[in-house]
Amino acid sequence: MRSNEETKSDGLATGLTVLSLEQSGVGEASAKRGLAWLAQNQSQDDGKWSAWSLNKKRDPSSDAGHFMNDAATGFAVLALENSH
User: What is the pTM of this model?
Assistant: First the structure.
């Protein structure tokens, strides 16, 4: 693994995984842990969830950086909405 790749959880991977678990009906305990992570990791400043590229380090203010955060926020919202 290259040193510039992020290895911590992010909103994109967590949101997509939780949504998939919810839709498949399996992994209820894992989905609950993921929902808790989403609730704890939403930005208090602007309400978004952050994400990082697995391919390379990206400037968060670039178009690609914004896209990653937009995708993370979208999947996080879908997962949270689906849980109700």
Answer: 0.83
